[in-house]
User: Fold this.
Amino acid sequence: LVLDEQGDLFAIGAALAEGIHQGCPHLPVVALEGELEAVSQGAAGHLVGADGRGEVLRFLDEADGLLPDFPAAEARAWDKLGSFHRRIDDWEKAELDFRQAIALQAPLVKEFPDAPSYWLWMATFRIALADVILHRKQPEEARKTLEETISTLMHEIQQNPRIEPPHGLLALGYSKLAVSLRQLGQKDQASEAERKAEHEASLASGSR
Assistant:
């Protein structure tokens, strides 16, 4: 992550802070493999990529394809950024961040339908987006997003019986669905979603 002259995050890519600081010490960089770190305001720069040894490869637009699983890493970076903006109650930016993560993840889910990590991450991003749009007073869109996400998760679980069901993720999805339904005045459906959330949560606790 590099800040632009206004202090806003300018770009995102799979980078190691150590490598960037070695090659371009003047750039404020956030390591995407860890938690978001504080960066100075009012800085400008270009995004570059680094390999696992901390060596700068080149500008990221040239390095794309050399970094393994770059689109998935970039999607998770947007998710991290969305979580950061959610923590500081910047709901508008958080929504944009999670939508960007979903846009990057969608082609991966389509191209690799048998890779569980891709659809699990997609569900994670979509539930996070639903939470944000609930805070932005859009319960109908949140309800639709959550119902589609839960339905997709249940379908994938049936198609992949050898994979342990993501009970914790389902519990979170159902709990957010209950909130959206209550905001829509659908009390009975909300109570049912809450029961399902509690059930999934108990299964998640039992599998630990």
